[in-house]
Amino acid sequence: MSITPAKTRALLKKIADRRILVIGDVMLDHYMWGDATRISPEAPVPVVEIKRDTYVPGGAGNVALNCATLGAHTALAGFIGEDEAGVRLRGLLKEHGVKAIGTVGQAHTIIKTRVIIQRQQLCRLDREAAAANYQMSAADAVRLLRKPIAECDAVVISDYAKGIVTNELIAAVTSEAHQRGKLVALDPKPKRALHFTDIDLITPNRKEASQLAGVPWTSGAPFPAEEICRIIHERHGVKHLVITLSEDGLLLSREGRILKQIPTAAREVFDVSGAGDTSIAGLGLALSAGADLETAAHFANAAAGVVVGKVGTATVTPEELLAYVSHTP
Q: Lowest-pLDDT range, 69-73, 96-100, 104-108, 282-286?
């Protein structure tokens, strides 16, 4: 079964009262849209004629934007530099009603520039500093985030392996949030061997889940879901585990036991970038609004189904989501 329009509408109404704090690696996504009709005489590469440039918050910024566009009151904590990109990024967040909470650090704003030709990505150019420039101590994290945590209903930690999300930050934020009865969700990047316990929700993809469990798996091989879910729960004490399976949908696990697999809701796929951001935003919002895990997963799955039908880092509005579920069997 998929989520009904009535359930979606009821959840969206509750989400409109939710206050969400997103913490993580914030970046500016820059898109250069153009066309290429000839090869450069200087090298065997296409000459791209740029038609327009667009900018959107990326990384944890996209998670926050998805929370905000779905109706929640949203704050975002992450490093934003004192530079032109930082000014643009703060302006975009403010425009969408997201409150930006700057963290400590000495670096330029992270920028990802993508060159798009006829809806296809030609290349990506990244500008970022070493991870140490974005890190902060547990003491700084508590000092900066104690009040925002107290004021929110749920905390979503979005790790893009750029430096801000560390073992110390996760532990400090989780302790502070759980003392106040707040839900904590984490989208981890386990290649950095993060250590965490007692998280309410994590949303790795298949590869990340296998890394978290320490169980070898390669794409195309059968996925040892039962073993991986059990080990992740034993190691990390995770309450809800939702493994994103790309075109195969979502795998739901509670306290180490598989509940079910939900098929993808996507009807057409142009770009999967940012779909994970939409998934954790939708899951965190729905769970914090009182939904059970299966209902929350269907809600997030439908939201991600809307987003992958768009090109580039994207979000979903309540109107788009309701239209989508109304036409989903």
A: 104-108
Strands 73-78 and 46-59 turn out to be unpaired
Q: For 268-290, b where at least 16 C-beta lie within 10 A, e where not — what string?
A: eeebebbbbbbbbbbbbbbbbbe
Kindly report the pTM of this predicted structure: 0.92
Confidence at residue 328, expressed as pLDDT on a 0 to 100 scale: 66
Residue 277: active-site member: yes
8 Å CB contact between 292 and 286: no
Q: Which residue in the block uniquely carries the two structure tokens 């107290």?
A: 150
Alpha-carbon distances of 231 from 226, 239, 261, rounded to whole Å: 9, 13, 18
Give how far the C-alpha of residue 30 lies from the chain's centroid of Cα atoms, to the nearest Å: 17
The residue-averaged pLDDT of 36-49 equals 93
Cα–Cα–Cα angle for 284, 277, 65, rounded to 5 degrees:
85
Contact yes or no for 237/197 (Cβ under 8 A): yes
Report the relative pairing of strands 110-117 and 120-127 from DSSP bridges.
Answer: antiparallel
- C-alpha to C-alpha distance for 54 and 27, rounded to whole angstroms: 14
Per-residue CA distances from 128 to 36, 271, 324 (Å): 28, 23, 37
**Inter-residue contact 276 to 203 (CB < 8 Å):** yes
Tokens of 262: 């939900």
Residue 267: strand, helix, or coil: coil
Catalytic residue among 35, 153, 277, 292, which? 277
Residue 77 CA to residue 183 CA, distance in Å, equals 17
pLDDT tier for residue 300 given thresholds of 50, 70 and 90: very high
Q: What is the mean pLDDT of residues 153-175?
A: 93
SS3 for 243?
A: strand
Residue range 5-27+58-110+131-326 in CATH 3.20.20.80? no
Neighbours of 25 (CB within 10 A): 23
- Of residues 18 and 221, the one with the higher pLDDT is 18
